[in-house]
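Entry type: protein chain
Record version: 2
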Amino acid sequence: MAHASKVSRGAILGAGVGLLTGNGLKGAIGGAVVGGGLGAVGQKGYKGHKARQGAKTGAVLGAGLGLLSGNGIEGALKGAVIGGAGGALLN
């Protein structure tokens, strides 16, 4: 159960940071995804290993989609962050 707790704490902390940056609900949701992904990647053992693999794949796919969306390097960086965090959470 410690694994879920680490992910939950990361998501809550990320949501708080996103909300405090002044981006409202959108910032809170983005912060929760990134924070939860960081929590998942920080896990030990098999679950952490799978999360890190998912983060790599998600980051590459997200960067590609961000670049293709026409937002250039900024879109690629945002896509990599969100894709990496999402990939970590899904694995």
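Comment: The longest helix spans residues 45-90.
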